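The instructor's notes for this session suggest beginning with a concrete chain rather than abstract definitions. Hand out the sequence below and ask the class to guess, before any prediction is shown, which regions might be ordered.
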Amino acid sequence: MSKLTTKVALVTGGSRGIGAGIARRLARDGAAVAITYSKGAEAAASVVDEIEGAGGKALAIQADATDADAVVAAIEKTVAALGKLDILVNNAGTAIPKPFEESTLEELDRVLDINLRGVFIATKAALKHLNDGGRIINIGSSVGERMMTPGLAAYSATKGAVKMFTQGLSRELGNRSITVNNVQPGPIDTDLNPASGDWAEPQLALTALKRYGHVDEVAALVAFVASAEAAYITGANLTVDGGTNA
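After discussion, reveal the predicted structure:
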């Protein structure tokens, strides 16, 4: 039996990159998986098709992470379609790399709204349905713990906030055996942060392994934290960054 058989997971921002990799891995480990997406219905449908083609069960729901009503509706649809909710992965996020002085207030508001307020919205809505013994897994960032990359000051501040939210919420949910953990990727090769991109060289220089990470390497850690084997891990900030923060 796969580790997550009988479990139902919701991955926000699951149509591409790290989110899609997490959705595919959770499904491969036996979970029924719902994903939300803001734009890119075709990409979301492709993830669902891939999961279902491998014998899994999946659902894609359009919901902008900053739209509270849409997120609440997405969680309701997940429970209605898949029967329950055991795992919430708060993956939806964004970065607008540029010197802070050049950032507009609109850009700063967007980073805050998606990366922090979006986590609050999804978590609050999910807690009404999340089963005891469930899992909340936030996708933070290595720069939320140690900041060495110019141009990401605001982004790192939101991920630092996610780190502390994780620790605080774990204290509130322990009596329900719900674990709350924060997985912090370093430089991961995605379309938003490609290993061949303009920002790659300084990020590579900071790693101990001298390479970008792969989406599947983040997904593997998420899958472990979601499993019964990680039942005694909560309030933790688990970094998968190739030694960037070493």
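Then share the key points. The chain has a mean pLDDT of 96. The longest strand covers residues 130-139.
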